TrEMBL record:
This is Uncharacterized protein. Transmembrane segments: none annotated. It comes from the Eukaryota. GO terms for molecular function: oxidoreductase activity, acting on the CH-CH group of donors, NAD or NADP as acceptor.
Length: 127
């Protein structure tokens, strides 16, 4: 609880596994968790289980999964907001840039071994 002294109100999880398990005991009363992915489970022959689910009960927290394909009708509205925020400098992102097509395999492996930060980009050519 070093970083969340009063607990977590809302946790957006696209990692799953140990990250989700660590967030559960740190949720505030009536906290909410949105599940949209589990990248930490990709490639595992046996996915890891979650051990701290009991915290949902004792904290009266809610956890709900969602998939973006259920919200495609909202995409035009989303773009209006995001483009506006980006132009205002309210959205900042990090690119993990790799040079040359020969770096693609290592960059791809880095996605699944927690070695990249931000958006993974392969700069193939300057034309």
């Amino acid at each position: 609880m070093k970083y969340f002294q009063q607990g977590i109100d809302i946790y957006f999880d696209n990692v799953g596994g140990d990250m989700l398990d660590a967030a559960l005991p740190n949720m505030r009363i009536h906290g909410r968790i949105a599940l949209c992915g589990a990248v930490s489970q990709f490639g595992l022959s046996k996915p890891h289980g979650i051990h701290n689910l009991f915290n949902l009960i004792i904290k009266s927290a809610k956890m709900e999964g969602f998939a973006q394909h259920n919200y495609l009708h909202l995409y035009p509205r989303f773009l209006e907001y995001v483009i506006g925020y980006y132009k205002q400098g309210k959205i900042v992102y990090i690119e993990d840039m790799n040079e040359g097509l020969e770096s693609a395999l290592a960059a791809f492996v880095g996605l699944f071994s927690r070695k990249n930060v931000g958006k993974q980009v392969i700069h193939v050519a300057s034309e």
